[in-house]
Design a protein that fits this description.
The protein has 439 residues and is an alpha/beta fold. The protein has 14 helices and 14 strands. A hairpin with a 2-residue loop joins strand 9 (261-267) and strand 10 (270-273). It starts with 31 loop residues before the first helix and ends with a helix. Bound molecules: nicotinamide-adenine-dinucleotide (NAD). The site of nicotinamide-adenine-dinucleotide has 29 residues, from helix 7 and strand 9.
Length: 439
């Protein structure tokens, strides 16, 4: 089944079959929420925000924790906890994924919800930020149990979500089928409401181009940067990509189509490398059937650790959070890091990369293609008008181009890195909307 997420999950390569959860935040010194707020404060200081406004913008609008107990197929009771954090709603309905993963808790949801507030503002979508999910390993449940769990969750949160309130989307271990169940359950209670979730199957009011949107957006983001920095084009450049799920595999396909040489790819089962470039269409086929990249004929093995410090032009982390840390940032040899994953670089590593002159294209811009096409899906649902794939692609490119132009201008004017510029742009937009609406 095709999957399209605003924060994780597979499609292109490994259609979700409720595999054991893979992507999670690595354990690190700061919590996810503290990390986001660290970057927020760095930008807020430059903007001279008053401590009160700062506190108001950082404080989540609502945090919800619900019991989602269900009867398991065995007849026993399965007890699970669901979360939904709604971070900010000043610029529109709140938007963000739902993940089914054992690490889901309030802090993880807080960090990711706040990231969504800033991400939607960076690409100027009329949304605020939200995130949530259920603390569960979906690999331990049958499809019928997952459906019951999903419907139970909707029953518990239906009064705080809605097409004009909070619009969930897939994330880690949730997919288009889960979104279809959410739409159906919510519609039973509130009447026909396709716009209550995005990332739905194309046959059920989903958008064309949603599945590949994040990977496509990653490559658009990179191209804008290369053009602006006078560094030519993708063709001929050497890439190392960590993660070969939805984001990584689509990004690799688009890089390959443009003549980029993807010389190393890794997933949870290890990696493969080929100095002249991997044959990406064949690797996608190999990973689809074998569910991992390891063992790809004609390529040598490489570990995830070695991939991150490989001698390439561009490093693209597209799997885990917190993989570039204080302990390996000095060894990164790429001159450009494109953050396709959410929060792959810890704040300390970010400083080390900056000291070493390595440019980082930040996650809140780079991987915003997914939520951007979710916005197109929502707009199509509301208008009851379907866009062609070409229109989706062209509008996505326009959004990424305009977002980059703004970031680059602010980075130059303020003499800051692109991440700080992204936060300055986002905080400015959210702050102005908040003030104009009145507290
Ligand atoms: P996915 O589940 O489809 O794929 C994840 C990939 O990471 C898989 O190839 C998996 O094997 C690999 N992986 C897992 N653990 C690993 C490990 N320990 N070492 C190396 N590789 C490992 O997820 P996705 O949708 O591609 O998301 C990837 C990242 O992109 C996540 O950080 C997610 O939050 C972020 N993101 C995704 C989207 C989207 O639309 N899918 C949007 C924004 C951000």
């Amino acid at each position: 089944m095709a999957t399209a997420t605003e924060g994780g999950s597979s499609g292109h390569v490994a259609d979700i079959s409720w595999q054991s959860p893979t992507v999670a935040y690595n354990r690190r010194s700061m919590s996810g929420f503290e990390e986001v707020n660290h970057y927020f404060r760095k930008a807020a200081r430059i903007m001279d925000l008053s401590p009160r406004v700062e506190r108001m913008l950082v404080t989540p609008f609502r945090e919800v924790k619900v019991d989602v107990s269900i009867t398991l197929d065995s007849g026993e009771l399965g007890t699970f906890i669901g979360y939904r954090v709604q971070h900010d709603r000043s610029r529109g309905p709140m938007k963000g994924g739902l993940r089914y993963h054992p690490t889901v808790d309030m802090d993880e949801a807080l960090g990711l919800a706040s990231l969504m507030t800033w991400k939607t503002a960076v690409v100027n979508l009329p949304y605020g930020g939200a995130k949530g999910g259920i603390s569960v390993d979906p690999a331990t449940l049958t499809p019928r149990e997952l459906e019951r769990l999903t419907r139970r969750f909707v029953q518990q949160i239906h009064d705080i979500i809605g097409p004009q309130t909070d619009i969930p989307a897939p994330d880690l271990n949730t997919n288009a089928q889960v979104m279809a169940w959410i739409m159906d359950e919510y519609s039973r209670m509130h009447g026909f409401s396709p716009a209550v979730v995005t990332g739905k199957p194309v046959d059920l009011f989903g958008s064309r181009g949603r599945e590949e949107a994040t990977g496509r957006g990653v490559v658009f983001a990179l191209e804008e940067y290369l053009k602006d920095a006078g560094q030519g084009e993708v063709r001929g450049k050497r890439f190392a990509v960590q993660g070969f799920g939805n984001v990584g595999s689509w990004a690799c396909r688009f890089l390959h189509e443009r003549g980029g040489r993807v010389v190393a790819v890794a997933d949870a089962g290890g990696g493969v490398q080929a100095p002249d470039g991997l044959d990406i269409p064949k690797l996608i086929e190999h990973a689809r059937t074998g569910r991992r990249v390891a063992g790809f004929p004609g390529a040598d093995a490489i570990t995830n650790e070695a991939l991150l410090v490989l001698d390439v032009d561009v490093l693209i982390p597209a799997a885990l959070g917190g993989v570039i840390t204080e302990s390996n940032a000095r060894d990164v040899r790429a001159r450009l890091v494109v953050e396709a994953a959410n929060a792959p670089t810890t704040p300390r590593a970010d400083e080390i990369l900056a000291e070493r002159g390595v440019t980082v294209l930040p996650d809140i811009f780079v991987n915003a293609g997914g939520v951007t096409v979710s916005y197109f899906e929502w707009a199509q649902n509301i208008q009851q008008f379907t866009w062609e794939a070409e229109r989706v692609e062209a509008e996505l490119q326009r959004h990424m181009r305009e977002a980059y132009a703004t970031l680059a201008r602010v980075a130059r004017e303020r003499k800051v890195d692109l991440r700080t510029a992204a936060f300055i742009v986002a905080i400015g937009r959210v702050g102005r909307a908040t003030v104009l609406r009145g507290v």
